[in-house]
Amino acid sequence: MQNEFTLLGDALWLDFVNTARGRGDNPPDLLPDAAAVLRWATAQRLDLNGGPPPMDTMHRLRERLTALAESLHGGLQPPAGSIAAINEQLACGEGRHQLTRVSGEWRLRFAPERRPSILEAIAQSAAASLADSLRLVRRCADPSCSLFFIDDSPNQSRRWCSTAVCGCQTRVERRRGLLR
To answer: What superfamily in CATH does domain 12-175 come from?
Structure first.
Protein backbone atom coordinates (compact mmCIF):
# COMPACT_ATOMS: atom_id res chain seq x y z
CA MET A 1 0.00 0.00 0.00
CA GLN A 2 1.40 3.39 -0.98
CA ASN A 3 1.39 6.14 1.61
CA GLU A 4 -0.99 9.01 0.82
CA PHE A 5 1.81 11.49 1.59
CA THR A 6 5.15 11.92 -0.15
CA LEU A 7 7.61 11.86 2.74
CA LEU A 8 11.13 12.37 1.47
CA GLY A 9 12.63 12.29 4.95
CA ASP A 10 15.02 15.14 4.20
CA ALA A 11 13.36 17.71 6.46
CA LEU A 12 10.01 17.71 8.22
CA TRP A 13 9.26 21.27 7.10
CA LEU A 14 9.73 20.37 3.42
CA ASP A 15 7.48 17.33 3.81
CA PHE A 16 4.93 19.79 5.23
CA VAL A 17 5.39 22.21 2.29
CA ASN A 18 5.10 19.28 -0.13
CA THR A 19 1.58 18.50 1.12
CA ALA A 20 0.43 21.28 -1.25
CA ARG A 21 2.72 20.30 -4.12
CA GLY A 22 3.18 17.16 -6.14
CA ARG A 23 4.28 15.22 -9.16
CA GLY A 24 1.97 16.48 -11.84
CA ASP A 25 -0.26 19.42 -12.64
CA ASN A 26 -2.73 20.72 -10.05
CA PRO A 27 -1.80 18.51 -7.08
CA PRO A 28 -4.46 18.27 -4.39
CA ASP A 29 -4.05 19.83 -0.94
CA LEU A 30 -3.17 16.79 1.17
CA LEU A 31 -4.05 18.64 4.42
CA PRO A 32 -7.58 19.92 3.78
CA ASP A 33 -8.95 19.07 7.23
CA ALA A 34 -8.10 17.96 10.77
CA ALA A 35 -8.42 14.27 9.90
CA ALA A 36 -5.78 14.61 7.19
CA VAL A 37 -3.49 16.50 9.59
CA LEU A 38 -3.88 13.64 12.07
CA ARG A 39 -2.92 11.08 9.40
CA TRP A 40 0.07 13.18 8.30
CA ALA A 41 1.22 13.68 11.91
CA THR A 42 0.93 9.93 12.49
CA ALA A 43 2.96 9.21 9.33
CA GLN A 44 5.61 11.66 10.60
CA ARG A 45 5.45 10.22 14.14
CA LEU A 46 4.50 13.60 15.63
CA ASP A 47 2.41 14.25 18.71
CA LEU A 48 -0.57 16.52 18.27
CA ASN A 49 -0.50 17.50 21.97
CA GLY A 50 -4.25 17.80 22.40
CA GLY A 51 -5.34 17.88 18.79
CA PRO A 52 -4.48 19.51 15.50
CA PRO A 53 -3.93 23.26 15.36
CA PRO A 54 -6.48 25.46 13.58
CA MET A 55 -6.46 24.79 9.84
CA ASP A 56 -6.01 28.45 8.93
CA THR A 57 -2.88 28.57 11.12
CA MET A 58 -1.52 25.42 9.47
CA HIS A 59 -2.18 26.72 5.96
CA ARG A 60 -0.72 30.16 6.74
CA LEU A 61 2.49 28.58 8.08
CA ARG A 62 2.68 26.31 5.04
CA GLU A 63 2.36 29.35 2.72
CA ARG A 64 5.19 31.11 4.57
CA LEU A 65 7.39 28.03 4.46
CA THR A 66 6.64 27.51 0.76
CA ALA A 67 7.86 31.07 0.14
CA LEU A 68 10.98 30.19 2.15
CA ALA A 69 11.61 27.03 0.11
CA GLU A 70 11.15 28.95 -3.16
CA SER A 71 13.60 31.63 -1.99
CA LEU A 72 16.23 29.15 -0.85
CA HIS A 73 15.89 27.15 -4.07
CA GLY A 74 16.44 30.38 -6.01
CA GLY A 75 19.48 31.34 -3.93
CA LEU A 76 17.66 34.33 -2.43
CA GLN A 77 17.48 35.59 1.14
CA PRO A 78 14.64 34.15 3.25
CA PRO A 79 11.51 36.32 3.27
CA ALA A 80 11.00 38.27 6.50
CA GLY A 81 7.47 36.86 6.81
CA SER A 82 8.82 33.31 6.75
CA ILE A 83 11.34 34.05 9.49
CA ALA A 84 8.63 35.75 11.57
CA ALA A 85 6.35 32.70 11.18
CA ILE A 86 9.14 30.34 12.27
CA ASN A 87 10.04 32.51 15.27
CA GLU A 88 6.37 32.76 16.26
CA GLN A 89 6.15 28.98 16.49
CA LEU A 90 9.53 28.61 18.19
CA ALA A 91 8.39 31.06 20.88
CA CYS A 92 5.61 28.64 21.87
CA GLY A 93 8.06 26.08 23.22
CA GLU A 94 8.42 25.60 26.94
CA GLY A 95 11.70 24.65 28.51
CA ARG A 96 15.02 25.89 29.75
CA HIS A 97 18.64 26.03 28.75
CA GLN A 98 21.00 23.56 30.34
CA LEU A 99 24.66 22.74 30.11
CA THR A 100 25.43 19.25 28.79
CA ARG A 101 28.63 17.42 27.94
CA VAL A 102 28.82 16.19 24.33
CA SER A 103 31.89 14.32 23.07
CA GLY A 104 34.04 15.78 25.83
CA GLU A 105 32.89 19.38 25.24
CA TRP A 106 30.39 21.47 27.13
CA ARG A 107 27.45 22.77 25.13
CA LEU A 108 24.53 24.94 26.03
CA ARG A 109 21.29 23.32 24.84
CA PHE A 110 17.62 24.00 25.13
CA ALA A 111 15.81 21.27 27.06
CA PRO A 112 12.07 21.21 26.32
CA GLU A 113 9.65 20.47 29.13
CA ARG A 114 7.28 18.70 26.74
CA ARG A 115 7.35 17.34 23.22
CA PRO A 116 6.88 20.10 20.64
CA SER A 117 3.51 20.64 19.03
CA ILE A 118 3.19 19.82 15.35
CA LEU A 119 3.75 23.45 14.31
CA GLU A 120 6.70 23.85 16.71
CA ALA A 121 8.31 20.70 15.29
CA ILE A 122 7.86 22.00 11.74
CA ALA A 123 9.32 25.39 12.70
CA GLN A 124 12.27 23.71 14.46
CA SER A 125 12.96 21.70 11.30
CA ALA A 126 12.90 24.86 9.14
CA ALA A 127 15.15 26.71 11.59
CA ALA A 128 17.64 23.83 11.60
CA SER A 129 17.75 23.86 7.79
CA LEU A 130 18.35 27.62 7.72
CA ALA A 131 21.07 27.37 10.36
CA ASP A 132 23.00 24.71 8.40
CA SER A 133 24.63 26.29 5.35
CA LEU A 134 25.48 22.84 3.94
CA ARG A 135 21.81 21.87 3.59
CA LEU A 136 20.60 23.28 0.29
CA VAL A 137 16.92 23.36 -0.62
CA ARG A 138 16.21 22.23 -4.16
CA ARG A 139 13.11 21.70 -6.27
CA CYS A 140 12.94 18.47 -8.25
CA ALA A 141 14.41 18.78 -11.76
CA ASP A 142 11.63 16.66 -13.26
CA PRO A 143 9.45 19.19 -15.14
CA SER A 144 6.27 17.44 -14.00
CA CYS A 145 7.28 17.48 -10.30
CA SER A 146 7.18 20.44 -7.93
CA LEU A 147 8.41 18.76 -4.72
CA PHE A 148 11.20 20.27 -2.61
CA PHE A 149 14.01 18.33 -0.95
CA ILE A 150 17.28 18.91 0.92
CA ASP A 151 20.40 18.39 -1.18
CA ASP A 152 23.00 17.27 1.29
CA SER A 153 24.92 15.17 -1.23
CA PRO A 154 28.72 15.48 -0.98
CA ASN A 155 29.07 17.59 -4.14
CA GLN A 156 25.57 19.14 -3.90
CA SER A 157 24.49 17.72 -7.25
CA ARG A 158 21.25 15.94 -6.34
CA ARG A 159 18.61 16.78 -8.97
CA TRP A 160 15.53 14.73 -8.17
CA CYS A 161 13.30 14.32 -5.14
CA SER A 162 13.46 10.58 -5.76
CA THR A 163 15.86 8.82 -8.09
CA ALA A 164 13.48 5.85 -8.13
CA VAL A 165 10.53 7.94 -9.35
CA CYS A 166 11.45 11.25 -10.97
CA GLY A 167 15.08 10.43 -11.79
CA CYS A 168 14.22 7.09 -13.37
CA GLN A 169 11.34 8.58 -15.36
CA THR A 170 13.57 11.38 -16.70
CA ARG A 171 16.34 8.95 -17.70
CA VAL A 172 13.83 6.69 -19.52
CA GLU A 173 12.33 9.67 -21.39
CA ARG A 174 15.81 10.88 -22.32
CA ARG A 175 16.69 7.43 -23.72
CA ARG A 176 13.49 7.38 -25.75
CA GLY A 177 14.39 10.77 -27.22
CA LEU A 178 11.49 12.54 -25.53
CA LEU A 179 13.80 14.88 -23.61
CA ARG A 180 16.99 16.55 -24.64
So the answer is: Jann2411-like domain (1.10.3300.10)
pTM of the model: 0.81
User: Taking phi first (over 0 means left), then psi (-120 to 50 degrees means alpha), and beta for anything else, what does residue 51 get?
Assistant: left
Q: Which of 151, 145, 146, 118 is nearest to 13 (CA)?
A: 118
Q: What is the pLDDT along the chain (180 residues), one digit of tens a residue?
A: 357 888 887 899 999 999 999 888 888 899 999 999 999 999 999 988 777 899 999 999 999 999 999 999 999 999 999 999 999 998 887 888 788 888 888 888 877 778 888 999 999 999 999 998 888 999 999 888 999 999 988 888 888 888 777 877 555 555 556 555
